[in-house]
Design brief:
Layout (H helix, E strand, L loop, with lengths): L1 H24 L9 H12 L2 H16 L5 H22 L5 H15 L5 H11 L2
Length: about 130
């Protein structure tokens, strides 16, 4: 049962590891992007912003595989996942893997919600003061 609970985390980590490693090793052929999507990715690539994002993706994917750091990694990778979905919806106009990644990230965070209760409890306690 514990393995079944971790499937969303493992799938999300696998997606980030494969596509993050592909940035450096080029083992998957990616079709060229045109229009706004091509311009956007071109700017990310030429400014090395994409390099930083890919390093974060790989590092956080590895942290997701470790039970002690999983909850933190899921929270830190959530903004990247949201940006992937927003890129697909608003710039590329083609929803794709970002939808699956949002679902996997959300399910994994919900499954680990007991790790986040301290954050929520602190906020509630501070608001009463």
């Amino acid at each position: 049962m514990k393995l079944l609970k971790n499937i969303p985390v493992y799938l999300l980590a696998l997606i980030y590891l494969v596509f993050g490693a592909n940035y450096f090793l080029h083992f998957l052929t990616m079709p060229p992007m045109t229009g706004n999507a091509g311009n956007f990715v071109g700017v990310l690539f030429t400014t090395n912003f994409l390099l930083v994002v890919k390093v974060l993706e790989i590092g956080l994917a590895l942290l997701m595989l470790l039970p002690k750091t999983r909850a933190l990694a899921l929270l830190l990778i959530a903004p990247i996942t949201i940006n992937i979905l927003l890129f697909e919806l608003l710039i590329a106009h083609q929803p794709g893997i970002g939808v699956l990644m949002i679902v996997l990230n959300g399910v994994a965070i919900i499954q680990n919600k007991e790790k986040y209760t301290g954050i929520v409890r602190e906020r509630v306690a501070l608001s009463k003061v």
